[in-house]
Amino acid sequence: MRHHLPATTTLALAAILACSTDREATDTTTPGVALLTPGPVSDAGWNAGAYEGLQRIGDSLGLRISHQQTLTPAEFDEAFISYADDGYGLIFGHGFEYQDAASRVAAEYPEVTFVVSGGSRPSANVVALIFQLNEASYLAGMAAGAVTQSGVVGMVGGVEIPTAKGTFVAFEAGVKAVREDATVLETFIGSWDNVSAAKEAAAAQLREGADVLIHNVDAASFGFFQSVREARERGRVAWAFGMNRDQNDVAPDVIVGSAAIDYTGMFLRTAQAWRDGTLGEPVYSGLATGTVEFLPNPAREGLIPADALERIDRARQAIIAGTLEVPSIDFIEKEDPVSSQ
Amino acid sequence: MSTTTLRTRPPLTPALTAATALLATLAVAAALLALGGYSPGDAFAALFRGAFGSWDRFVSFTLVRATPLLLTGLAVAFAFRARVWNIGAEGQLHAGALAGVAVAVALPGTPGLILIPATLLAAAAAGALWASVPAAMKTGMGVGEVITTLLMNFVALFMAQFLVQGPLRESRGVFNQTDEIPAAAHLPDLIPGTRLHLGFLIGVLIAVALWLYLTRTPGGFRLRAVGASPRAAEVSGRFRAKPVVWLAFLTSGAIAGLAGGVQIAGITHRMYENLSPGWGYTAIAVALLARLNPLALVVTAIVFGALSAGGGAMQRDAGVPEVWVRGIEALVILAVLTVDRSWQALADRGSRG
To answer: What is the largest CA-CA distance in chain A?
Structure first.
């Protein structure tokens, strides 16, 4: 009797496979671009931005696109190998954590280009994509310095990695450029998606007297904004800044402005450069290329005083001109020979 | 199972139940996918291709993913056989990975013949040490191990976070990860040209060893007797339960710890904060599906490995988001367990004659 079951199962499987035979498994003639993200593309931040960028590459350049969300480092190699095997020529790993796997797999697939956002070890076919978000974060800091009444400003971060830390050192410098005596609080919650931890961290900083808060916690930002909103409902002065992506519409009631990355433009330019064969050295991209920007919340016009806005604009020009250097945290491994091409 | 015939009724019902369960699951999964706007045919085809599409996919993806599940599954099965409900494989795995990486990083320039065994032994020892805490609490104070092993998982996860952010953080001090272990500590490839490392063979050998121990030795008989009924074993006057419980805890912890060491030495070459996607918990399903039989566990671990490798392909080739993939995987696991229980019922009825 027992072998009836395998038979049934086989039938079912065959039926399922039959459903899909009318479609070719993979179309390998169109060049493909793939994206790996460490978190869900519904985070309204880091991952969502990259996913929009990927979609734009598909729409504007007519390239084949695919996306995978990976959970643990053990999956990184597997995903890179699968894409390389399936004829994808440009593969984005959206986060520093993809560096090791990209380097390993890149050695086996010299004809494939790997792009690591926040990468630290560039090589012949591994390109580091560096978003100089610290520049926009500095401008946000200046706005925070102008908006704060208590003189206490808070920063809630996710995992303490150089890119996140870099936005905070710049933000702090921006605050102090406007208000020298300001106190700046900093908390890292150790996670990118722990909504309740982000909420608690923000609430703690509000209790310590902070009235303007910035975050860099990605998907956990919903808890962060909620905390600020609740403080306002209790009649307190409390404002927040968005980070990574233009989040002004995520919480228009509490956001002063966002330090945002134009992922779409950056990904599109990178894919174009790859197609034209000009992609090589680490790509730094900040205010000068329009990749990052500080965007005041249009729903809260007038919140940042006009003279402060003018100062912010002068600082923006100075950063672009190279006369104002924004603090940053460098993480490219200098000791590794960067191949000259 | 006896092959006695003389059945009073044709045992068709369980077979039908199983088939219905499987088909119903597929239908539900397909309906969910269709509701989400994804093609069920493409999704299942991608799942199949990702896990079994080619020899290389099977070896480099499915078997690689099966390896930590096999080791943690064996750890769980061995403990469960002695009626020791070790839910702590996840924590023991983390303890093992931490110890393994610490030893490997601390001994640069050591030849692989010494460094690899040292790394793996450190991992196994740390896993056993982690399991010894609930073992002592159970044998000494009668504290239930379901709670203690589970809680020790959280302690291990936080300890891993602390060590990776602090004392074991990479020497550059930039990212929350340990230094890379020296190349000499990397496990050699089991099949050259693929990603499959020695860890899989270690898992299979341990499976065979555990099976031989359980079925062919007096120690194994004692362990099964205590597992069947600790009170009866004690009352019979021939077995003392305590040493058996200790043996089960320490062996189980050591194998789970080894799983962590194998993953570090074979795949990631570093320790991160999120090393495991929950292998120590999935291991319980892997072990139960194998009915705690170490040899059957090799097969069930591969089934679960295939499911997770196929899940990645569902994302890549059929555009199904990760949360959907995990939902489908859970449905398939439920179906497989239902089918398995139906087979069990069928077998029972058959042997009753």
So the answer is: 85
For chain B, positions 273-332, list CB contacts with chain A under 8 A: 273-277, 309, 312-313, 315-317, 319, 321-323
Range of the domain at A229: 133-260+292-321
Helix axes A4-20, B40-52, angle to 10 degrees: 110
The A residues from 13 to 52 touching B (CB cutoff 8 Å) are: 13, 16-20, 23, 25-26, 34, 40-41
Nearest alpha-carbon partner for B230 in B84, B86, B128: B84
β-bridge mates for residue A259, sequence order: A243, A294
Interchain contact, A73 vs B270, CB within 8 Å: yes
Can you tell me the distance from the alpha carbon of B133 to that of B145, in angstroms, rounded to the nearest whole number? 10
DSSP-derived pairing of the beta strands A113-117 and A88-93: parallel
Given this structure, which CATH class describes domain B39-346? mainly alpha
**Closest CA of chain A from B44, distance in Å:** 7
Contacts of B15 (CB under 8 A, 6+ apart): A1, A2, A4, A5, B342, B346
Cβ-count burial of A149 within 10 angstroms (0-12 exposed, 13-18 middle, 19+ buried)? Answer: exposed
- Which residues in chain A are contacts of B64 at CB distance < 8 A? 74, 78
Copy the structure tokens of residue B279: 């292998």
Q: Is A76 a domain residue?
A: no
Q: Which helix (DSSP H) or strand (DSSP E) does residue B109 occupy?
A: none
The pLDDT score that the predictor gives to residue B350 is 65
State the Cα–Cα distance between residues B280 and B285, nearest whole angstrom: 10
Q: How far apart are CA B265 and CA B262, in angstroms?
A: 5
Dihedral sign, Cα of residue B118, residue B124, residue B127, residue B128: negative
A97 in a structural domain: no
| Identity of the residue in B11, B41, B319 whose CB atom sits nearest the CB atom of A20 | B41
- Of the candidates A52, A31, A32, A30, the residue with the CA atom closest to the CA atom of residue A42: A52
Determine the distance in angstroms separating the CA of A306 from the nearest CA of chain B, rounded to an integer: 39
| Closest by CA position to A71, among listed B308, B235, B136 | B308
DSSP code of A219?
A: G
Length of chain B: 353
Domain count, chain A: 1
A11 touches chain B (CB under 8 A): no
The pTM of this model reads 0.83
CATH number at residue A230: 3.40.50.2300
A162 within some domain: yes
The answer to whether residue B346 neighbours chain A at the CB level (below 8 Å) is yes
Report the alpha-carbon angle B279-B283-B285, nearest 5.
Answer: 125
List all residues of chain A from 74 to 113 with a beta carbon under 8 Å from chain B. Answer: 74-75, 77-79, 81-83, 86, 96-97, 100
Of B44, B61, B316, the CB nearest to A68: B316
**CB distance from A194 to chain B under 8 Å?**
no
> Which residues of chain B does A75 touch, with a Cβ-Cβ cutoff of 8 Å?
312
Domain ranges of chain B: 39-346
Strand partners, A65: A33
Q: Do B10 and A20 touch (CB under 8 A)?
A: no
For B38-94, write each residue's pLDDT tens digit: 999 999 999 999 999 999 999 999 999 999 999 999 999 999 999 999 999 999 999
From its phi and psi, is residue B269 left (phi > 0), alpha (psi between -120 and 50) or beta? left
Q: Is residue A137 part of a domain?
A: yes
Distance from CA of A97 to the nearest CA of B (A): 9
pLDDT along chain A (341 residues), means of 10: 45 46 50 93 88 94 94 89 94 93 94 92 90 95 96 94 91 96 95 92 96 93 95 94 92 94 91 88 86 94 94 96 90 51 30
